[in-house]
C-alpha cells in the first residue's frame, strides 16, 4: 500500500495540472506559461488554446490543429511522432556551389497571399515547405549545406509541433537570458553555477541570500539544491516591498520545499534583530498615526518617511480585516470634518481611525516572517552567504557578514568590476576575512557540425564578476 502511494506521489509531479508552470518549446524557441483551465498562448501571430495539455504528462508533444479557416487560431492534439523535413533533402539533388544564384527576390513563384492561403487551408508544415521548394527556381542549384539552412529557416516558420517541458533551473535561465539578460542581472549560467559552488549550498543548514532584482533566479537555484526532505533554510533578503520570485514560482516547488524559503525585507530584518519588536512596532505606530492625520488634513496622498517605513506600512495595510479599507481609502476625504459636519460623519472617521490603530495590536505577516528569520540566525549559524546586488555591495556586505559563521564562505556577484574592487580593498583590511579572490568568467559556446565547427557569433561578452572569501575568527 505504501509503495502504491509513493508511485502515485511520484507520478503527480509529472502530470500537467492547472496552476503549474510549464515551458512551451517550439524548435529552439521557449516560453514560460502558467497553466489555466481555459488559457491561451500567443506564439508570434498564432493564438494557441492550451487547455488540451491539462492532465497530460510533461515532455508530451502536441500538434497545432487549425480551428477556424481564415484565422490563425489553433488547438492542440497529442502526437506520438512528428514529421521531419530532412526527408525532402534526400529526395532532391543539390548543386556544387552558389555562384550562379542571384538573390533578386524573384526565385519564389508563389505570392505572399498564396502562401497565407496554404497556411489557412490547414495543410501541414511539410506540405507547405514542399510547395515552396517546388516553386523555388534556385533551390535545386543550391549546395546541400545551403538547402539545409533554407529548410531550417522555413521549419521555424511553418513547424506546428509543441513540446511541453518541465521547468528546470537551466531551462528557465535559458528563457530569460535569451529574452532579456538584464532582467536577471546579466547572471550567466556559468556565473550562477559558481555562485552556488562558492556559497557551498547543501541540503542541510541555514543559508542567506541578498538579491536586489534577478527575478528570483538565485533563490530558485539555491532552494533547488536545498531540496524538500531536509532541514535546511534559505533567508532571502530583498530591498523592496515584495521579493522578485517569478522563477521560484516557475519551478513548481512542493509546499514542503517552498516553506524552506523565507522572504524578508533587509531593513526590517536588521531593525528587528538589533532594536527588538517593541521598538519596531512603536516606530511604525507613530509613523502610521502621523501619516493618517496629515493625509486627512490635506486631503491627498503624500509619501512620508523613507522606503523602509513605507514598506512596513504597506504590509500593515494587508493585515486589515476589511481589505477594502486602507490608507488610501481612508484619506480620500478632502478635509477634516468641520463644525457643520453631521455626527455620523464624525463617528465614521473616528471609527476608521480606531480600526486603523487597532491593526497595530495584530502582528502582520511580514513581521512574523521577519521574526522567524531572526530566530533562525539566533539559534543556528549561517553556513553560506551569497549577495547578488545591482547597487554598490559595500554596505550590504558590512551588514550581513556578522551573521556568517566562522570558517564559512561568502560570494558577491556584480555586473561591474569597480564596486567589487572597492569592496575587496575594504575586506582586505579586516583581520577576519581570508582567501579573497576577485575574478570574472569567460564562456564561449561552439557550433559543432560536420566540417563546420566555429564559435557562436552572438554571445554575451561578460557574465559579471565574483568576489569570494572566507570569514574566520
Entry keywords:
473 residues; 7-stranded mixed sheet; 40% helix; disordered N terminus; tRNA processing; nucleus; TRM6; tRNA (adenine(58)-N(1))-methyltransferase non-catalytic subunit TRM6
Explain this structure.
The chain is α/β, with parallel strands linked by helices and 473 residues long. Helices cover 40% and strands 19% of the residues. A seven-stranded mixed β-sheet has the order 2-1-7-5-6-4-3, covered by helices on one side. A seven-stranded mixed β-sheet has the order 10-9-8-11-12-16-13, with helices on both faces. α4 crosses α5. The chain is elongated, with a radius of gyration of 29 Å. The protein starts with a helix and ends with a strand. The N terminus is likely disordered.
Helix and strand arrangement:
Blueprint: H1 2-12, E1 21-26, E2 29-34, E3 40-43, E4 46-49, E5 60-66, E6 73-78, H2 86-91, H3 112-120, H4 125-134, H5 144-158, E7 161-165, H6 169-180, H7 189-198, E8 206-211, H8 217-226, E9 233-238, H9 246-250, H10 255-258, E10 261-265, H11 266-275, H12 277-298, H13 307-318, H14 327-330, H15 343-358, H16 365-379, E11 382-388, H17 394-400, E12 408-414, H18 417-428, E13 433-440, E14 446-447, E15 454-455, E16 465-471
Parallel strand pairs: 4-6, 8-9, 8-11, 9-10, 11-12
Antiparallel strand pairs: 1-2, 1-7, 3-4, 5-6, 5-7, 12-16, 13-16, 14-15
Helix pairs in contact: 4-5, 11-12, 11-16
Amino acid at each position: 500500500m505504501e509503495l502504491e502511494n509513493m508511485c502515485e506521489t511520484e507520478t503527480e509531479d509529472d502530470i500537467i495540472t492547472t496552476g503549474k508552470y510549464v515551458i512551451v518549446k517550439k524548435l529552439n524557441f521557449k516560453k514560460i506559461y502558467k497553466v489555466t483551465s481555459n488559457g491561451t498562448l500567443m506564439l508570434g501571430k498564432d493564438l494557441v488554446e492550451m487547455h488540451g495539455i491539462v492532465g497530460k504528462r510533461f515532455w508530451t508533444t502536441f500538434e497545432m490543429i487549425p480551428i477556424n479557416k481564415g484565422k490563425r487560431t489553433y488547438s492542440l492534439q497529442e502526437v506520438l511522432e512528428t514529421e521531419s523535413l530532412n526527408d525532402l533533402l534526400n529526395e532532391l539533388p543539390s548543386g556544387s556551389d552558389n555562384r550562379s544564384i542571384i538573390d533578386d527576390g524573384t526565385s519564389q513563384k508563389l505570392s505572399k497571399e498564396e502562401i497565407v492561403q496554404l497556411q489557412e487551408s490547414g495543410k501541414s508544415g511539410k506540405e507547405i515547405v514542399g510547395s515552396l521548394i517546388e516553386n523555388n527556381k534556385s533551390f535545386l542549384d543550391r549546395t546541400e549545406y545551403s538547402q539545409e539552412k533554407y529548410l531550417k529557416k522555413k521549419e521555424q516558420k511553418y513547424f506546428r509541433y509543441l513540446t511541453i517541458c518541465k521547468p528546470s533551473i537551466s531551462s528557465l535561465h535559458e528563457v530569460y537570458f535569451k529574452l532579456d539578460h538584464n532582467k536577471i542581472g546579466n547572471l550567466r549560467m556559468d556565473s550562477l553555477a559558481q555562485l552556488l559552488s562558492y556559497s557551498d549550498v547543501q541540503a542541510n543548514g541555514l543559508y542567506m541570500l541578498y538579491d536586489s532584482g534577478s527575478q528570483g533566479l538565485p533563490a530558485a537555484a539555491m532552494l533547488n539544491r536545498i531540496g524538500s526532505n531536509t532541514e535546511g533554510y534559505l533567508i532571502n533578503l530583498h530591498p523592496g516591498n515584495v521579493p522578485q520570485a517569478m522563477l521560484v514560482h516557475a519551478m513548481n516547488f512542493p509546499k514542503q520545499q517552498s516553506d524552506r524559503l523565507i522572504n524578508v525585507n533587509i531593513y526590517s530584518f536588521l531593525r528587528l534583530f538589533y532594536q527588538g519588536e517593541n521598538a519596531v512596532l512603536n516606530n511604525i505606530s507613530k509613523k502610521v498615526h502621523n501619516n493618517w492625520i496629515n493625509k486627512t488634513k490635506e486631503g491627498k496622498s503624500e509619501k512620508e518617511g523613507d522606503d523602509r517605513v513605507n514598506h512596513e506600512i504597506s504590509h500593515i495595510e494587508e493585515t486589515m480585516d476589511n481589505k477594502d479599507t486602507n490608507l488610501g481609502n481612508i484619506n480620500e476625504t478632502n478635509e477634516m470634518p468641520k463644525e457643520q459636519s453631521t455626527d455620523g460623519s464624525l463617528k465614521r472617521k473616528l471609527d476608521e481611525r480606531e480600526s486603523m490603530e487597532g491593526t497595530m495590536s495584530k502582528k502582520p505577516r511580514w513581521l512574523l516572517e521577519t521574526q522567524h528569520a531572526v530566530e533562525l540566525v539566533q539559534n543556528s549559524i549561517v553556513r553560506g552567504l551569497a549577495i547578488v546586488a545591482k547597487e554598490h555591495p559595500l554596505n550590504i556586505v558590512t551588514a550581513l557578514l556578522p551573521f556568517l559563521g566562522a570558517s564559512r564562505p561568502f560570494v558577491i556577484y556584480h555586473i561591474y568590476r569597480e564596486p567589487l574592487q572597492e569592496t575587496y580593498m575594504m575586506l582586505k583590511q579586516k583581520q577576519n576575512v581570508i582567501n579573497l579572490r576577485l575574478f570574472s568568467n569567460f564562456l564561449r559556446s561552439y557550433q559543432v557540425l560536420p566540417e563546420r565547427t566555429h564559435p557562436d557569433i552572438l554571445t554575451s561578452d561578460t557574465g559579471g564578476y565574483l568576489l569570494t572569501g572566507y570569514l574566520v575568527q
